[in-house]
Amino acid sequence: MGATRDLQIRTIKLVFIIDLILIVLSFLIFDKSMPWILGLIFGSAISSLNFIELGKTLERAVTMPPSRAQAYAASKYFVRYIITGVVIYVSLKADYINVLGTIIGLFLVKFVIISTNLFNDKQYFKNILKRKEAD
């Protein structure tokens, strides 16, 4: 359970750092940056909470019998999907929240996970850079 929590904390810290960088850039790029910033924070917060909920779901599902774990994980999956849909809907309806900022915020956790795992795998880069000889 500690490894899952450490991964969640590390991922959310990186999302927060990227959020700060994007907020600073938005002040430089946009004239009215507040709706974009609110959308980014809104999407990132919901995405981070969904990531934490996913960890709790998986930890709990591992302790259940297989049929019950499958039903439990599937129901939690649909709840997270519905929450994401509601977030996008609210972002579309609210004038003070930018939809693009919200969607970028929702994808930030996924981006951080993929990028950290991609850049931590040195063998992956060795395989890419390895020269293939003709047979």
From TrEMBL:
Membrane topology (UniProt): Multi-pass membrane protein
Principal location listed in the UniProt entry: membrane
Pfam families membership: ATP-synt_I
Membrane-spanning parts: 12-30, 36-52, 73-90, 96-119
Protein name: ATP synthase I chain
Keywords: Cell membrane, Membrane, Transmembrane, Transmembrane helix
Any one GO cellular component localisation term in the record: plasma membrane
Coiled-coil regions listed: none
Domain of life: Bacteria
Location within or outside the cell: Cell membrane
